[in-house]
Amino acid sequence: MSKEKIINKLLKYFYGIDGVLDEYKKSQLNKFGNIGFIILCWYLLISSFIALILYAQNLQTAFNFLIIGNMVIFFAAMLLSSLFLRQKKLTIVDADKTDYPKMKKKYAIKSIILGVYFGVAMLFLDALDNLVTGNGNFLTALTSLSNIGLTAVEGLSFGFIMYLLFRSRLKK
């Protein structure tokens, strides 16, 4: 597989683009990526300087500033990329009447897989959290019926939300 094909697959996977990645979509993604890179470079420069000043006063304050700041920037970047993709209509999938049921079924299966993956990941992360914080045993947390039930509900909810998202992208 060539380097160009790998990059295209990564772009399509990361941004959630189905179908062909044409030149227009690729140029819009490059434009968004360049702007994002510039903003993140400035953020790193400024936040590092502020953290250095805070470190001189209190290590815990500097640590909290960096953790909370990075989380805010991460979620802001995800929100902005989602809005950008929706505004530029890069994730819209045009399906004719014959392909529409097939695409609906494809998205239903994809949503089920994502929901199961999310539920299992949350179960393991909860058990790992219990292990790290000392609140319980790893295996007990994995086999607890309340944890399994909770993560099943989380997985179903996530899968349903993803199905609604996929369906909103599908146009006849």
Automatic annotation (TrEMBL):
Entry's transmembrane regions: 35-56, 62-86, 107-125, 145-166
Signal sequence coordinates: none
Pfam families in alphabetical order: DUF3278
Keywords, ordered alphabetically: Membrane, Transmembrane, Transmembrane helix
InterPro entries: DUF3278
Name the record gives this protein: DUF3278 domain-containing protein
